[in-house]
Amino acid sequence: MKHFLLAAALILSAPAVMACETVTIGDLTIEHAWSKATIGAGRPGVFYVEITNAGSVDDALIGIATPAAGMPMLHETVVQDGIASMPHAMSIPVPAGQNVQLSPGGYHGMLMGLTTALKEGDSFPVTLSFEKAGEVTVNVDVLSLRAEGPDCADAGQ
Amino acid sequence: MLGVGAYRTRNLPTRSELLPLPIGEMTWTLTDHRGRSVRPADWAGRPVMVFFGFTWCPDVCPTTLSDISLWLEELGADADRMIVALISVDPERDTPDVLANYVSNFDQRILGLTGSADEVAQAAADFRATYRRVAKDAGDYTMDHTAGVFLFHPDGRFVSIIDFHEDRRFAVPKIRRTLS
Lengths: 157, 180
Ligand SMILES: [Cu+2]
Description:
The structure holds 2 protein chains of 2 kinds.
Chain A: H1 2-12, E1 22-25, E2 28-36, E3 45-53, E4 59-65, E5 69-76, E6 78-80, E7 83-85, E8 92-94, E9 99-102, E10 107-114, E11 123-130, E12 134-143
Parallel strand pairs in A: 2-12
Antiparallel strand pairs in A: 1-2, 2-3, 3-9, 3-10, 4-8, 4-11, 5-10, 6-7, 11-12
Chain B: E1 30-32, E2 37-38, E3 48-53, H1 60-75, E4 83-88, H2 96-103, E5 110-114, H3 117-127, E6 131-135, E7 141-146, E8 149-152, E9 158-162, H4 171-179
Parallel strand pairs in B: 3-4, 4-5
Antiparallel strand pairs in B: 1-2, 1-5, 3-8, 6-7, 8-9
The complex binds copper (II) ion.
C-alpha cells in the first residue's frame, strides 16, 4: 500500500519527479527534497532533504527560504523522557565527508505561514543557505501526508 | 483566543515512572471524529493502541500515524478488533471535524479523539501522558507531547510503549502480543 501510494504520488508529478533530482554546489550534493501535503494553509508544512558533503571542509545549513511560506525555519525533533518537542535549530552541521538527512523524526524545515495549502503532486522551490558553500535552490515534491519519503530508483533512504 | 488555564502541564517529576492505568480503571470521556461519545468501558475486551498528538504537528504525528498505518496493514484482519486511537492534546483546534479530515489520510481503523480541555487532561492523566503548550511568534503555538504508542491487552492491562525512536521492526511483534 505504501508503495502504491508513493507510486500514485509520483505519477501525479511524473513530468518532474523532482525529489529524485540531484543538485550540487561546491562539494555539496543535495537530493531527495520532499514535503508532505497539508490540510489547508493554516497548518505548518514540512521540508525534508538529504545533503552530502564530499569535500574536506565542514559546512553547515544555516537557513532556508521559499516563496511557499512566510516563515520557514530549521527545526530538530527531539524526544526526551518520551516527550517530543521541536526546538529551532540555529544551524545543521554538514561535516566533511558526511551525509546529513533532514528526515521524519529528526532535523526538518518547518514551513510556517504557508501561502497556500500544499497538495500532493505539487512542487515548490526551497533555497538552502550554507555557511560556506552559499545558496542553492532545489525543487521540492509534495507527497501525501502518509508518505515516508520519495521513491527514487537510487534512493539512499 | 488562547484561554488562560485551558491546558494543563503535568510537572510531577516521578510521573514518567508511573505506568498507565488499566483501561478499566480510567475515567475519561472523549468524543470521536464522528462526534460520538467514547468511554473506557467501550473498549472492554478489545486490544488497544493509543497515541497522543495533534493535527497541527507536521513531523512526529504524521510520521507516527504513517507507521501505525503500515503496522495495521501488516497485521491485516488480525488487527480489526483492535481499538486504535489518536488522542488530541490540542482540543482547542482539533474539533471532531478537523480530526475526521486528518485521520482520513491514514488507515481507516484509526479513531481521532478529542474533548474539552479538562476531558483531554483527564485522559492524559489516566495514560500518564504529558503535554505542554509552547508559544511561538504571532500568537501561534505548538505542543510538546508524549510521543510513544501505548499498547493494552484486551483485558485492559497495560502491555508496553512503542517509543518514537525505537527500531520499528519490533513494533509489529509487540502489537501481536496484545492481540491474543
Ligand atoms: Cu518543526
